[in-house]
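Hello,

Our lab assistant flagged a job as stuck in the queue for most of the afternoon. It eventually completed. Since we weren't sure the result was trustworthy after the delay, we are filing this so someone can double-check. Below is the sequence as submitted and the structure that was eventually returned. Let us know if re-running is recommended.
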Amino acid sequence: MISIENLSVEFSARPLFHDVSFVINDRDRIALVGKNGAGKSTMLKILCGLQKPTSGTVAIPGDTTIGYLPQVMKLADDTTVVEEARKAFAQTTRMKARIERMQQEMADRTDYESDSYAQLVEKFTLEHDRYMMLGGDNYEAALERTLTGLGFQRSDFDRPTREFSGGWRMRIELAKILLQQPDVLLLDEPTNHLDIESIQWLEQFLAQSAKAVVLVSHDRAFINNVTTRTIEITCGHIEDYKVKYDQYVVLRAERREQQLRAYENQQKEIADIKDFIERFRYKPTKSVQVQSRIKQLAKIVPIEVDEVDNSAMHLKFPPCLRSGDYPVICDDVRKAYGDHVVFSGVNLTIKRGEKVAFVGKNGEGKSTLVKCIMGEIPFDGTLKVGHNVQIGYFAQNQAQLLDENLSIYDTIDRVATGDMRLNINDLLGAFMFGGEVSEKKVRVLSGGERSRLAMIRLLLEPVNLLILDEPTNHLDMPSKDVLKEAIRAFDGTAIIVSHDREFLDGLVTKVYEFGQGHVREHLGGIYDYLRAHNAETIHEALSGQGPSGPSPAPSPQPAQEPPVPSKQSYAEHKEQQKRLRKAQRAVEDCERDIAKMEARLKELDELLMQPQNASDMTLVTEYTTTRQALDRANEQWMVLSEQLEALQQA
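-- returned structure --
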C-alpha cells in the first residue's frame, strides 16, 4: 500500500535515520517504537506528507487516503461537538449535493433521447453508487457511534467545543479521523487523553474496522492489543519484527546480545590490527604487512550497538519563600457552563507541604478547578489562595505554548535570569538536551522532548505551590521516575492531576475524587484510595467496578470526618514490589549466566573443529560439563520466569 525506499533524514547535518526501507501493507497493525528523539513522530509526518525527507522516496498510490493524529494539534473552538465531527464527512456531503443537483437537472430536462441526457444519467448512477458505497445517509449513525464510543454523552453533542478540556477536544479530532475511514491510520500517542473505557473501545475499533494502522504509544497494553508487527528505529536505521510488542522485547534482547558479542569481537580484531601496526610500523621488513593491515583496518565497517539509554533528568526545584499555612481553601465553589454544571459545593483545604492528587474521569472538572485556582476562569463561591503563595503551573497543553521557531537553547535563554543564565548548558544537559542537541528547533522536537523542555521552563522560577496537570503525558518511564523523585523532594505544596497509579504511589498523601458534579476527599495514598473502593486501578475506582463488582455508591457530599485509613494496603504493595524486583534480578542473573555459557560453548565448538584439538579430552570434558550446566540453567530460567510472571499478574 505504501512503499518507503532508502529514506534518510538529517537535521543540521546530523542524521536522524538513513537508508530506511519498508512496506506498509493493507491490514498491517504496526507499532513504531524507539527511544525518545529516535524519529518516530518524524516518520509519521513523512508518511502523511507533512515533512519531506532529505533523500529517498515514499510511494503512495493516488487513491490511498491517510488519516494522521499528531501529538500536538491546534484546535478550533468556534463550533459545537457534532458540527466539528461532521467535518469528517465533508466529501460525502459535497457528493450528496452533487447528486441532488443532477437529480434536479434530470427532472427539469425533457430531451430524454439525447446523448447528453444519457451521459447525465450514467454520471448520476456512478456517483449515486459511490455515495451508497460510502454509507449514504447512514453517516449520522456512524458519527453518533464514534462520539459515544470515545466517551461523549448525547447531551454533549450540541455543546460548544470551547467548553471542553484539551483532552476532550483531541477526542473530537480522533473521532473525525476515524469517521473518514482512511486506508492508513497514523496515530501518535492516541491514548494520552483517553480513559480506560475509551481506550478499550478504540482497541476494538482498530482491530475490527480499521485498514492499515501505524501507531506510536507508551501504553504497552494498548500496543499489545492492537498491533501484530513492530518496527524499531534504532541507531539511525530500522529493525522490522513481524510480532507483537511483548515478543519484540524478547527478540530485541536476543538481537542486542548478538550485537554486543559481535561488537566485542570486532573491537578485539581492531585492537590486534592496531597493535600490529604500532609494533612494526618502522620496521622495513614488515612494511608490506603493515600496509596490508592499514588497508584491512580501513575496510572494517563499525558495528553499531543500540545502547540502553541510562542517562536521566536530574530535577531539583529551586528554594522559595515559605507560603501561608493553607495555600488553597475552597468554600462552596461551583462552576457551570450554561445549564451544564461541572461541579458544585466544592469544599477543600490544602495545607502547606501536602502532596495531593486530583483523580476523575475526563470532563469531571479536574482541570477546570485547577483553572479556577489559577484565576483563569470565573466561578461561584469562595476560593482563597494563601499568603505569599507563588504558583508554578504545568498545563496539559504546556508543550503547545512553546515558540516553534526558537531553538532549545534560545527557549530557555529567554526566560532564565540571574545566575541561572550561566548554567543553562548544565540544565539542558540534565534534561538530555546537551551538546549540539540544544541547537535543534522546537518545531522538530517530539512530544516527549517538548514536554521535557516545558518542564525546564517551570524549573526556572522559584515556586511554593506546584500544580501539574497530567505531567506524565509523553514522558517515558525513566523520565517519569525522575520527575516523581523531584516532586517527592520538593518542600512546597503540590497538586497533581493524573490517572497514573504508579506515578502517584508513594507521592501523594491525599486524594480528591471528581465525579457526578462533586469532589470527595480521601485521606491516605493512592493505594489506600483504591483499597477503599475495592479496586485495582483508578479507572475501576472511578467507575465503581472493583474485582468483586460495583462498590457502594459514596455519599453525594464530601465526608467531613473520614475514617483513618489503614496502611496495610500500601505496606502490602511495597512488599509485593520488593518481591517483584527480587524475582526480576534472579531472572536477569540467570540470563547473564546462560549468555556466558553459550558464548563459551561457541568458543569450544571452534576449538574442537581444529584438527589438533579433536582429541583434547580437557576441552571435551569442559564442553560436556558446560552443556549440562547450560541445560540446568535453562530449566531454572523457565521456573524463575514463571514465578516472575505470576508476581506480575498478582
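-- support follow-up --
The delay was a queue issue, not a problem with the job. The result is valid. DSSP finds 20 helices and 20 strands in the chain. Residues 309-313, 546-568 have pLDDT under 50 and may be disordered.
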